[in-house]
Amino acid sequence: MPHNVVWNWSPRTAWNRHCSFLELSLREFLRLQTRLLMEHLHGLPDRALARQWLPGGVPASLQTFRRTLPLTGPRDYAPLLGPQAGPDAPAGEHRRVPSRSVGPGAWHVPYTIRGWAAAADTLMAAFLLASAQRKGEVNLRPGDRALYPREQLGGLIGRLGVEVTRRFGILGVAGVGEAEAAPPLPASAVRLLPDPGLLNHRGWHDGRGLLPRLVSWGSASAEPPDRSALQIHATAEGGIMALQGWNRRGMTLVPHASFFEFIPEAESWASRADPAHQPAVLLMNELEPDQRYELVTTSFYGMPFLRYRTGQLVRVVELEDAQLGCRLPQFKLEGRCDDRLDLDGSALLGEPAIAGALTDCQVGCMDWVVRTETHRGRPWTHLYGEFQGELTAGEIAHVVAGRLMAAAGYRPAPDASAAVHPVWVTRLPAGALEHRRHGTGIAQHPAGLPRVNASDALVAGLYSSAEIATLQPFSPGTPG
Question: Beta-strand (E) ranges in 343-445?
Fold first, then answer.
């Protein structure tokens, strides 16, 4: 029996403990966020991070924090989170979770005891919401089971799953891995979603039938193929940051995960083109419906990230969800706006790694642009390239997909087709990209046409809508 008393609580108590954030007003959400932020900052003065980013001491207010602390990015944390972190590693560390944000094996994000407990509570909230059909409904019991794809067991959700087993009794069962068979379960009990950007499980009750919903997560930019899936947004750096409600519509940010700020999409692209540009940064009460923003997070509970630009684009789909009774903005993930390619929802590749992969696969690539796009309800990796030789687009995609997997640190596996987003290739005539770089609105940008994750406007004109309709993606492990 798990040591947590949650199973001795009434359904109302269990729901309020884990899911009551859905009932907060926007004002209450911001007040809670501010309190947790200031508590976190007051615990940092003796840390290496504070010496670097808060030389003047702890800000006296939220306004001072936002005015004086600069935005940060992945490169700012390499000395603290890399393999040579040494004595400057964050104090109070409880455990480390690997992250692929700067390449395979490069980062291990430290979690404090409080940070880890908060993340486990949020995963429990996800299970409650996944199995509910209405507010306050609790369908979970000790001994219920969750299936975890084996290749993800070493990451955030797999490790949190162990904590959820220990604390709440939701048993984790490993799925198919390299040269290992799946556990002896009914075929109807589990299945892996074909969308590789989502880690997923289906729970079931011994002798009592299946739970009616899936749980899935990742930074994929599309709806899951099974609309009954409950989407979660989670990263090693930010923990579990957003959950869908039981109605499977937009996602709600979790107020005790991180402090959230937002850069309008146009400002984000402008600051990427011109590093000297200081983008506007908004709070959640300043957001507008149907607009896209780059997500900025600051850790709580003594963890290391301060005004961290995640590079993730979110869209505000609505300012509240009346069906849930939720008065908070509802979000949808819509890809990235930095120079890292989101390969599978957890593995991110920078331009040097992608360029190396294209060189290694020897497909005659002379010039290229690559980005994640959403088509047919799922994210695909789209490579626009100028190629020498007679290889077809499908043959090129076959080779490129394998090299990208290798660059991300994947080992060959029988289920490799579920490991990365499908890849498709658009062959461009020689000089097309150079011509686009000198086109209207691009030549004036200091950064020109980025090779990775160029905006919709910057790639406009490289292909026609008719051409897109005929494209067929390539998934590793399937015929090209």
Answer: 348-350, 365-375, 378-387, 423-427
Distance CA 276, CA 287 (A): 24
φ and ψ at residue 443, rounded to 5 degrees: -60, -25
Amino acid identity, position 1: M
Q: In one letter, which amino acid is 437?
A: R
Please state, in angstroms and rounded to a whole number, the distance separating the CA atoms of residues 480 and 476.
8
Instruction: Measure CA of the first residue to CA of the last residue in the chain; give whole Å.
Output: 50
Residue type, 378: R
DSSP 237: T
Q: What 8-state DSSP symbol labels residue 474?
A: B
d(CA 24, CA 38): 20
- Residue 309 in tokens: 């630009």
Q: Is the dihedral of CA 354, 111, 379, 185 positive or negative?
A: positive
Tokens of 110: 């430290």
Each residue's pLDDT, cut to its tens digit, for the chain (480 residues) gives 445 566 777 888 889 999 999 999 999 999 999 999 999 998 875 566 677 777 778 888 999 999 989 999 888 887 777 655 544 455 566 778 877 666 555 678 889 899 999 999 998 898 888 888 889 888 877 767 666 555 556 678 778 877 877 777 766 554 433 323 333 332 222 222 222 222 333 333 333 333 333 344 444 444 544 455 678 888 888 999 999 998 888 999 999 999 999 999 989 988 887 888 899 999 999 999 999 999 999 999 988 899 999 988 899 999 999 999 999 999 988 878 888 887 765 567 888 888 888 888 888 889 898 888 777 666 778 888 889 888 888 888 888 888 887 777 665 443 434 445 678 888 888 888 887 777 645 544 445 678 888 877 777 766 543 344 444 444 443 333
Contacts 24+ apart (CB under 8 A), 356-363: 356/407, 357/400, 357/403, 357/404, 357/406, 357/407, 358/385, 358/400, 358/403, 360/403, 361/399, 361/400, 361/402, 361/403, 362/399, 363/387, 363/389, 363/391, 363/396, 363/399, 363/400
Picking from 96, 401, 286, the residue whose alpha carbon sits closest to that of residue 393 is: 401
